[in-house]
């Protein structure tokens, strides 16, 4: 078989795993009522004229289940970090204590929990779409290989393997979604 007839299944699997990793990152930013340092990952601070992640201007800690603290290294950035948190849409009210910013995590009410499960479902659907796009790319490669002379048996084998990768990846997305929704709804 020549190289242009081979389908790179490892690349397809890697791209599908990338969609799942991206989903897990998005899930980590969803607030579940428990404190987590990862919920601050999307928050950017205007530090020294550049947008900088919070974890690069201070130390993020979780001393209690319902408290996140940020020990800002540069005293001049405390106000900017506080403003970035207020403007982030996380719904958390920062409290200042010198260079330490405390973020008490409030309890989630039932309505907010339902809203968060819907957001999680949207993130999961987006990941499924990404995985299906990777599957479509794989199937397109198989069609191109067919015109280049790939046998029907090889086409069928590759198509089955691509579908198997897709089913496995979507199953992993569904499991991650179930776990996240259970975590959100847990009181």
Automatic annotation (TrEMBL):
> Quick one: a GO cellular component term?
cytosol
Q: Which Gene3D superfamilies match?
A: 3.30.1360.40, Ribosome-recycling factor
| RNA-binding is among the record's keywords | no
Where is this protein found?
A: Cytoplasm
Q: Its domain of life?
A: Bacteria
Residue ranges constituting the Ribosome recycling factor domain according to the UniProt record: 23-185
One GO molecular function term of this record is: ribosomal large subunit binding
Q: Matching HAMAP family, A to Z?
A: RRF
Q: To which protein family does this belong?
A: Belongs to the RRF family.
Q: What does this protein do?
A: Responsible for the release of ribosomes from messenger RNA at the termination of protein biosynthesis. May increase the efficiency of translation by recycling ribosomes from one round of translation to another.
Q: What is this protein called?
A: Ribosome-recycling factor
Query: What SUPFAM superfamilies does the annotation carry?
Result: Ribosome recycling factor, RRF
Which GO BP terms sit in this record? cytoplasmic translational termination
Q: Which UniProt keywords apply?
A: Cytoplasm, Protein biosynthesis
Main location group: cytoplasm
Where is the signal peptide, in residue numbers? Answer: none
């Amino acid at each position: 078989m020549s190289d242009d007839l081979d389908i790179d299944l490892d690349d397809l699997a890697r791209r599908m795993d990338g969609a799942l990793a991206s989903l897990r990152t998005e899930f980590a930013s969803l607030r579940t009522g428990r404190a987590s340092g990862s919920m601050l990952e999307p928050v950017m601070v205007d530090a020294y004229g550049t947008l900088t992640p919070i974890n690069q201007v201070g130390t993020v800690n979780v001393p209690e289940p319902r408290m996140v603290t940020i020990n800002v290294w540069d005293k001049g950035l405390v106000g900017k970090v506080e403003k970035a948190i207020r403007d982030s849409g996380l719904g958390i009210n920062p409290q200042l204590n010198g260079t330490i910013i405390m973020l008490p995590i409030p309890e989630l009410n039932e309505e907010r929990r339902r809203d968060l499960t819907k957001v999680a479902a949207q993130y999961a659907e987006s990941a499924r779409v990404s995985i299906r796009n990777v599957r479509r790319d794989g199937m397109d490669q198989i069609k191109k290989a067919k015109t280049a002379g790939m046998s029907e048996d090889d086409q069928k084998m590759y198509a089955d393997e691509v579908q198997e990768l897709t089913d496995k990846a979507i199953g992993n997305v569904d499991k991650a979604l179930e776990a996240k929704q259970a975590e959100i709804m847990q009181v």
